Amino acid sequence: MIREPLTLFCYADLSGQVRGKGFPTRLLDKRLKAGIGWTPTNLMFTALGTIASSPWGPHGDLTLMPDPATRVEVDFEDGSPAERFFLCDLTETDGTPWDCCPRTALKIAAKDLLRETGIVLRATFEHEFVYSGAETRAGDMYGLGAVRRHGVFGEVFIAALQAAGLDVESYLPEFGPGQFEVTLPPAEALAACDQAVTVKELARATAHRLGHRVTFAPRVAPDGLGSGVHIHFSLWTEAGEPISFDPDRPFGVSERAGSFLAGVLRHMPALCAFTAPTAVSYLRLVPNTWTGVWSNLGYHDREAGIRICPVFGASRKAARQFNFEFRAADATANPYLQLAAIIRAGLAGLRDGAPTPEPTTGIDPGVMDEAERAARGIRRLPSSAGAALDALEADAAASAFLSPALTQAYLANKRSELELTRAWSPEELCARYAEVY
Ligand code: GLU
Ligand code: MG
């Protein structure tokens, strides 16, 4: 049959859904300069197929402006159309940034961090997901057999990532039935977010070609296991020197990293509105599931809201490996907004020169008494999406982390989605979100 290659210009919307418009690839050169038209109200699409009340209505126009560095062209060589897309900024039609563009919000946050402090944040998003083509059985966790029995998915997926220019650091069978995890090496904030979008799309693209699906939903069953997004981050100079680690300070946390972490912990309940924004997020964020339900910094602790990660091998490499992991996050969020909010909160801590939080070691905040938690400034993170949105609105500083228009649009969008799910049972929540994500 005759075929004409297609390319799509896309962006990750407020729900992290990747949407955009396509054109014949032979027009790419022209389109790279001109972008493609987009509609402001599309930002108010919810993940569930509705449109939240839009401040723009039928009015106005935007441009999806591609970033050439994000180009993906992956031909699976199975006769199916290649995956061909670019990630874009949303701009006004004259090319100036749109104040509701999530990707631009991240760029501005990273730029402000650099300008004010000289710090560059590096990050990587660790993704867990469930593959429908896995032949699972009880006791499969981390099993060699689990990889064998999920067939070619893993190898095709990794080849697709490599074809898109993404290196894979690890790929593993996780704890849950059919659950796998993929990690990439850290990159500067914008590239890390672009990669988070591409990784998920190429996992979906791979599964699709094998007649299956993957889902990154935080829970696929109310009593099942969660799939998290663990956001690893570390601080660097512009010249590429690591500055999170200081061997002469407690737990190796440098003074500047300590201030950054203090800011993130201070705003963490509000940050959950960006990092874990949906009703199904809170079926995952429950105590004793290795997810992170407290605003604590935990030393090598997978129950902590933020974990100080271990370093492996020779100590001279410690500074370059040393990083922190924000665990109260999942894939129903937009990665650019997740990281923008974390950077903004960290920057607030740096501006104040906030003292380094005292890490918890070997103790779960859940077993401390209220007075001890209060003395350490540890709070229970929101236990519902509504509470997370309330926490954002109650935190004046966090409400100003993004532009006023973007914050308003975000809150309206999320509240509207939440309203749709209000009457859904946990089973229905899991089923519906597993389908979408
Ligand atoms: N699956 C867990 C989560 O929902 C994390 C398990 C792990 O530490 O890798 O975040
Ligand atoms: Mg994991």
What does the model show?
The longest helix is centred in the middle third of the chain and has 21 residues, at 189-209. Helices cover 36% and strands 18% of the residues. The protein folds into two domains: 6-45 and 56-98, Roll (Ubiquitin-like (UB roll)); 105-127 and 224-436, 2-Layer Sandwich (Creatine Kinase, Chain A, domain 2). It has 437 residues and is α+β, with helices and mostly antiparallel strands. The structure holds glutamic acid and magnesium ion.
In a nutshell, what does this entry contain?
The chain has 437 residues and is an alpha+beta fold. The chain is 36% helix and 18% strand.
Topology of this protein?
Layout: E1 6-12, E2 18-24, H1 28-34, E3 36-38, E4 62-66, E5 72-74, E6 83-92, H2 102-117, E7 119-131, H3 144-149, H4 153-163, E8 170-173, E9 179-183, E10 187-188, H5 189-209, E11 214-215, E12 229-237, H6 255-266, H7 268-275, H8 281-284, E13 297-299, E14 306-308, H9 318-321, E15 324-326, H10 335-352, H11 370-376, H12 385-394, H13 396-399, H14 404-421, H15 426-436
Helix pairs in contact: 2-10, 4-5, 6-10, 7-10, 7-12
Number of spatially distinct domains: 2
SSE string: EEHEEEEHEHHEEEHEEHHHEEHEHHHHHH
Strand segment count: 15
- Main β-sheet: number of strands, strand sense, barrel status? 9 strands, mixed
Strand content: 15-25%
CATH architecture of the largest domain: 2-Layer Sandwich
Question: Ranges with pLDDT <50 over ≥5 residues?
Answer: none
* Bound ligands, named by name, code or SMILES: glutamic acid, magnesium ion
Count helical runs: 15
Distance between the termini: 32 Å
CATH superfamily grouping of the largest domain: Glutamine synthetase/guanido kinase, catalytic domain
Rg, Å, rounded: 21 Å
